[in-house]
TrEMBL record, chain A:
It comes from Fodinibius salipaludis. PROSITE patterns: COMPLEX1_49K (PS00535). Its EC number is 7.1.1.-. This is NADH-quinone oxidoreductase subunit D. The lineage of its organism: Bacteria, Pseudomonadati, Balneolota, Balneolia, Balneolales. It is an enzyme of class 7 (translocase). Gene3D superfamilies: Cytochrome-c3 Hydrogenase, chain B. It catalyses: a quinone + NADH + 5 H(+)(in) = a quinol + NAD(+) + 4 H(+)(out). Belongs to the complex I 49 kDa subunit family. Keywords: Cell membrane, Membrane, NAD, Oxidoreductase, Quinone, Translocase, Transport, Ubiquinone. It is found in: Cell membrane. Its main location: membrane. GO terms for molecular function: NAD binding; NADH dehydrogenase (quinone) (non-electrogenic) activity; quinone binding. Coiled coil: none annotated.
Automatic annotation (TrEMBL), chain B:
GO terms for biological process: aerobic respiration. NDH-1 shuttles electrons from NADH, via FMN and iron-sulfur (Fe-S) centers, to quinones in the respiratory chain. The immediate electron acceptor for the enzyme in this species is believed to be ubiquinone. Couples the redox reaction to proton translocation (for every two electrons transferred, four hydrogen ions are translocated across the cytoplasmic membrane), and thus conserves the redox energy in a proton gradient. This subunit may bind ubiquinone. This is NADH-quinone oxidoreductase subunit H. Its main location: membrane. It comes from Fodinibius salipaludis. It is found in: Cell membrane; Membrane. GO terms for cellular component: plasma membrane. Its EC number is 7.1.1.-. It comes from the Bacteria. Belongs to the complex I subunit 1 family. The gene is nuoH. One of its GO terms (molecular function) is oxidoreductase activity, acting on NAD(P)H, quinone or similar compound as acceptor.
UniProtKB/TrEMBL annotation, chain C:
It comes from Fodinibius salipaludis. It is a multi-pass membrane protein. Keywords: Cell membrane, Membrane, NAD, Quinone, Translocase, Transmembrane, Transmembrane helix, Transport, Ubiquinone. It is an enzyme of class 7 (translocase). This is NADH-quinone oxidoreductase subunit A. NDH-1 shuttles electrons from NADH, via FMN and iron-sulfur (Fe-S) centers, to quinones in the respiratory chain. The immediate electron acceptor for the enzyme in this species is believed to be ubiquinone. Couples the redox reaction to proton translocation (for every two electrons transferred, four hydrogen ions are translocated across the cytoplasmic membrane), and thus conserves the redox energy in a proton gradient. Signal peptide: none annotated.
């Protein structure tokens, strides 16, 4: 078809202006590079992939210009899952908003809780007890494994090996059970609190974590055994979707996508939060920048996570799990039920909440499974944030997709989406 | 060539019935084996061990709405699903299930099978094209390119079996393997034939035409109701037929290993029962192989399929054929 | 001779009847409530851009043409394979030459890049 006038061939039923400008962008995208963009043989095809597509990890939309099986140009359209979470935050106290963070990157809720709580603690100068730091680290690393397992399952499933999905989900099920015992929720755990965590680890939960840490490396070895020397999987990933280091930095890619492109940046190591400076771990990095590199980076990160959890379990100090300051954190349930002060404090925390100084602002980011997850908070001295911004890793990483897709084949799109590992809830907020 | 008798028609009727049944059984087996591989239970509610599940599936498909896309080509859209079913059913006529147990013996049986088999691609390609959906079109084009590419190595692999049989009749092909199965005499062609059989049946790792992950079902994206059901049925019939062909061409058909050397003479009924059971067992094994592979390994990319077909399998099969032709010639003229 | 094909003809009839029967059954038994949105072709929930049954990439035709060339080779091979043992070594040699000639064609096809589908190497990309 004549790609010069795609706009005339489509009759959008909704958001007319937005859709037309998207097709416009497809026409113009590479005009500076390719002047000869005529199609005299009329062989090009414009294909919508998503938002209602089984392999686009939710509601990601790609518009592809195809020549046979080749992608000549790709345009990205995101925002189908926008829920206005940042705006919602302005009408909630800090503690009330915390459960909303579970719903951004819903594959690693614990990391999001920790990211938000550390950001609030930074702006309000809240001290967190030592034990809580370690519990947060264990939770974050578990959720990293859980998130990477989902990535592994879906990415390998996108290459066509359907069974793999269920094998990784069996492992995720164990992590969900652990979360169930840690915080009482399997999925949206909401366990971190401003000033600590909701409750201490029970003996049950500790035993389960220990079991998991002992058993999981063997499973990981099995996954490696199934994939590393599988010729089809190897060939489908090697050299696909190459993102050079400079380009990755320009785009602002973070997390495994950046490390797969050969830039060893990990916030856990460069600006340690919690107690990451007291545990030893490597930053898996690959130089190739292709999908296979990203695969290896994530697989090795799971190894490192297990290592971190082991050290945390060894070092886990005794003590309280939440700061004992009634102006900064909720009192424990015992206090609330059996003492007048406790109940008043509980009421005040719920009603007013924690009040950072007026005019203060802070940005704090952590290394979430998908990359750098940051919360920017501006305070006007009340219990609600004046402005709250989320720097989500999926949004940054998705920008690399357009670059990577050009010149690859249709079958590669799903693998590359899998390799970048976006979560649309995180990207669209 | 043996003349056609009443037995032939009885065999034909039973074979046709069993092929339809085996497609249903293959669907059931696929779901149970997949469940076993994935640590699940699989269908176990409809009937004992879920055995009636395929019947429930068919009834469900029959009661669904038949949707034809408005911009599609309605006649071709309706004819397309019939073609794969037709070609799969047509193959049973010439396959021998036992000593003297076949519907008909024609002197061009092998050519007939290859011809009928290659017709199957029309159904898929036309179905993809007539839907007038881009995903379907891509699936249809992939199917066409893939199936014709793999027909060449398949044809040459079969041709290298003909060298031993010296005839295009299936009866002669099977009888030539009474002592030495072709898989022993001609292992390279056996591997090539098994790979191409997977490609011709559009099964993983060659299931790019449907590729549910990128093409959302490929050629049958726009099909619903029994039209989809017929593509579905045909796929499983092709699995069964493919297993039968692998058995017949390379694994001695109804012969036990080296049967000519040690198997004593038997009565007609006993021999018939033995032959059919041996044939069915081998077919079941290869059908299981089809299912096993489907649930364990990833799918090829389009350019990898083309590369494997044209740059690897085709040259190998050409040289395998030539080499065997020379060896057989010298063996026949100067040694034996 | 031709009566051996009679079962095949009968089988063809049965197959066609069976296929049509299944289609008709579903048409009769199933509901039919079409509407515009339902009959739209699937394009991931978006409005379809243009027509799908347009011209498509030339590379697919190349495979088809190459196939015809080599399929003719395979067709020649069959009658030869059945009866070459009855003839002298000349038949064997001439068939080897014939196949090798076509093999040179295959090498040309590969070197020319007609079977490469990557953006950089392909003939028409």
């Amino acid at each position: 078809m004549d790609t010069k006038h795609i706009k005339n061939d489509v009759d959008p039923k909704f958001l007319k202006k937005h859709q037309e400008s998207l097709y416009d962008a497809l026409e113009d995208k590479h005009t500076t590079v390719e002047i000869l963009d005529e199609d005299p043989l009329n062989t090009k095809m414009v294909l919508n992939m998503g938002p209602q597509h089984p392999a686009t990890h939710g509601v990601l939309r790609l518009i592809l210009q195809l020549n046979g099986e080749l992608i000549e140009k790709a345009k990205l359209d995101i925002g189908y899952l926008h829920r206005g979470i940042e705006k919602i935050a302005e009408n909630k106290t800090y503690q009330e908003f915390m459960p909303y963070t579970d719903r951004t990157d819903y594959l690693s809720p614990y990391s999001n809780n920790v990211a938000f709580c550390t950001a609030v603690e930074k702006i309000a100068n809240v001290e967190v007890p030592e034990r809580a730091h370690y519990i947060r680290m264990i939770g974050s690393e578990l959720s990293r494994i859980s998130s990477h397992l989902l990535w592994l399952g879906t990415m390998v499933q996108d290459t066509g090996a359907v069974s793999f999905f269920l094998w990784t989900f069996r492992e995720r099920e164990k992590i969900y059970d652990i979360f169930d015992h840690i915080g009482g929720h399997r999925f949206t755990i909401s366990h971190a609190r401003i000033g600590g965590v909701a409750n201490d680890l029970t003996d049950d939960a500790l035993a389960m974590i220990k079991d998991f840490v002992n058993e999981f490396p063997q499973e990981l070895k099995d996954f490696h055994g199934l994939l590393d020397r599988n010729r089809i999987f190897f060939d489908r990933n090697r050299g696909v979707g190459v993102l050079p280091t400079e380009r990755a930095l320009e785009i602002g890619a973070t997390g495994p996508t950046l490390r797969g492109s050969g830039y060893a940046y990990d916030i856990r190591d460069f600006e340690p939060y919690a107690r990451y400076d007291e545990v030893e771990f490597e930053i898996p990095t690959r130089l190739e920048g292709d999908n296979l590199a990203r695969y290896y980076v994530r697989m090795e990160e799971m190894h490192e996570s297990i290592r971190i959890i082991r050290q945390c379990l060894d070092k886990l100090p005794k003590g309280p799990v939440r700061t004992d300051n009634a102006k900064q954190a909720y009192p424990s349930k015992d206090e609330v039920y059996y003492s007048m002060e406790g109940m008043i404090h509980d009421f005040m925390m719920t009603d007013t909440g924690i009040c950072p100084p007026e005019g203060s602002e802070s940005f704090h980011s952590i290394e979430a499974p998908k990359g750098e997850l940051g919360y920017f908070i501006q305070s006007n001295g009340t219990g609600h944030p004046w402005r709250l911004g989320i720097k989500s890793p999926s949004y940054a990483n998705l920008q690399a997709l357009e670059d990577m897709l050009d010149g690859e084949m249709v079958a590669d799109t799903v693998i590359m989406i899998g390799g970048v590992d976006p979560v649309m809830g995180d990207s669209d907020k | 060539m043996e003349p056609v008798t009443t037995t032939s028609y009885i065999v034909l009727g039973i074979a046709l019935f069993m092929l339809l049944n085996s497609a249903a059984l293959a669907v059931y087996a696929e779901r149970r084996v997949a469940a076993f591989i994935q640590n699940r239970w699989g269908p176990n509610r409809v009937g004992p061990y879920g055995l009636f599940q395929p019947i429930a599936d068919v009834v469900k498909l029959l009661l669904k709405e038949d949707v034809t896309p408005a911009r599609g080509f309605k006649t071709i859209h309706a004819i397309a699903p019939m073609i794969p079913v037709f070609t799969a059913l047509m193959t049973v006529a010439v396959i021998p299930f036992g000593d003297g147990l076949y519907a008909t013996d024609i002197n061009s049986g092998v050519l007939y099978i290859l011809a009928i088999n290659s017709l199957g691609v029309y159904g898929i390609t036309l179905g993809g094209w007539a839907s007038n959906s881009k995903y379907s079109l891509l699936g249809g084009l992939r199917a066409a390119a893939q199936m014709i590419s793999y027909e060449l190595p398949m044809g040459l692999a079969v041709a290298s079996c003909i060298l031993f049989a010296g005839s295009l009749s299936f009866i002669d092909v099977v009888n030539s393997q009474e002592v030495w199965w072709n898989v022993i005499r001609n292992p390279i062609a056996a591997v090539i034939f098994i790979v191409t059989a997977f490609a011709e049946a559009n099964r993983t790792p060659f299931d790019l035409p449907e590729a549910e992950h990128e093409l959302v079902g490929g050629y049958h994206t726009e099909y619903s109701s029994m039209k989809f059901g017929m593509f579905f049925l045909a796929e499983y019939m092709h699995v069964v037929v493919g297993s039968m062909l692998i058995t017949t061409f390379f694994f001695g058909g109804y012969h036990l290993p080296f049967a000519g050397l040690w198997l004593p003479e038997m009565g007609v009924t006993a021999k018939a029962i033995l032959d059919v059971s041996v044939f069915v067992l081998k077919t079941v094994f290869f059908a299981f192989l089809f299912i096993w592979v489907r649930w364990t390994i990833p799918r090829f990319k389009y350019n990898q399929v083309m590369k494997l077909g044209w740059k690897r399998l085709l040259p190998i099969s050409i040289f395998n054929f030539l080499g065997l032709a020379v060896i057989v010639y010298f063996w026949h003229h100067y040694i034996a | 001779m031709f009566e051996n094909y009679l079962p095949i003809a009968i089988l063809a009839g049965v197959a066609v009847v069976l296929a049509i029967l299944l289609m008709t059954l579903s048409r009769v038994l199933g509901p039919y409530r079409p509407n515009k949105t339902k009959l739209d072709p699937y394009e991931s929930g978006m409005d379809p851009v243009g027509d799908a049954a347009n011209r498509y990439s030339i590379s697919f035709y190349l495979v088809a043409i190459a196939f015809i060339v080599f399929d003719v080779e395979v067709v020649f091979v069959y009658p030869w394979a059945v009866s070459y043992l009855d003839f002298g070594p000349g038949t064997l040699v001439s068939m080897i030459i014939f196949i090798l000639e076509l093999y040179v064609g295959l090498i040309y096809l590969i070197k020319k890049g007609a079977l490469d589908w990557d953006l950089k190497k392909g003939m028409f990309n």
